[in-house]
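Suppose you are handed only these lines of text.
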Amino acid sequence: MSLKGKKIVLGITGSIAAYKAPHLVRLLVKAGAEVRVVMTSAGSQFVSPLSLATVSKHPVLSSVSDGATWNNHVELGLWADAMLIAPCSANTLGKLANGLCDNLLNAVYLSARCPVFIAPAMDEDMWHHPSTQSNISRIKGFGNHILPVGHGELASGLTGDGRMAEPEDILQFLDGFWSISSEPLRGIKALVTAGPTYEPIDPVRFIGNFSTGKMGIAVAEALADAGAEVTLVLGPSNLQTSHSKVKTVHVVTAQEMYDACMDTFADCKIAVLAAAVADYRPIAMAIEKIKKLDDEFNLQLTKNKDILASLGKIKGPGQTLVGFALETNNELEHASGKLEKKNADMIVLNSLKDEGAGFGHDTNKITLLLRGGENIELPLQSKKIAAHAIVDKLIKLRYAEEIV
Ligand code: CTP
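From them, the structure of the protein bound to cytidine-5'-triphosphate can be written out as follows.
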């Protein structure tokens, strides 16, 4: 359950459904949440503050000042990971919609920076009244989450809409909210390249580089942690991942890496190319081992396909492409050139000049270069943390373009 450790302010207002509040608190506490109850004075006529203090294990607050002490609504609003108003009466809905602040509950609501969940409860005609419905639209427009009302027997004796969502359903709603927002890339496929490529010269020799694949594997795992289904195209590396959401395709040469990427990219919304791909390969691989004969030996090389640039050419709307740049001089200039030339959305720059950055280290010092000239310089940090920073920025980019 994703409610474990969550801090929740439960606001209770004047509705008969308040009698369900102790049960709701019990369920929240059982799921591992910490609950502080704030009530309106009308709320306390329907359910005893003593019962709620007992089940929540904290005093119940109801007014901005209890005579000698002042209850800090700002502190409570900032403390909370979520505010839940259940039941929320028609009267309180009206206040929330208009920013009125005549009690502690409303003050906490106005101070809260966390998500707010509202479970309305009232009689059917009150619920369907245009002023209630217009308040609901307004409150939704502020970014609050309205839980659906139930249909059934009402306190008035009528049967219809307006019942507060059942405590079990409220719990499921909150749990669903947190499990989705902790996996913002759920349902999205991503492609990551990592490691070096080896370009065979003869059956025993190759052209390669010092890349270990550590950074790319960390990116693949960070994407998977965010919920993505990742295909990791990995060059020859001693490292591997056992993350259940990462499928590894092993390749050796740049051409094999290119083919694997081309097979995968069309289905992917995100591609992060972290591999150190050999730029050139021998024109032909010798079938037999090359013998040591002359004092000089010339090897003719030909250019490999640029995978990032090729994906940049076929990238469609809704696909986000990230490349890496490992530089030794004029770093920003070279890296921003790659952003343009390869049609990437972001380039992760690391410089071999920075101590602790680059091949083999557990740490990296990266700068994120974005379209429009934004550069985000990050400190030297572990490759795992750097990978999460890359993924966080990528998610923000996609949210900004509304393509998540
Ligand atoms: N890249 C690629 N295919 C290649 C060469 C590079 O996909 N054949 C990708 C790398 O994975 C990286 C980015 O392009 O994401 C930049 O790689 P880098 O080696 O820094 O740049 P190059 O384009 O090879 O340019 P140069 O070596 O001249 O700096």
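What can we learn from it? The first helix runs from residue 21 to 30. The two ends are 24 Å apart (CA to CA).
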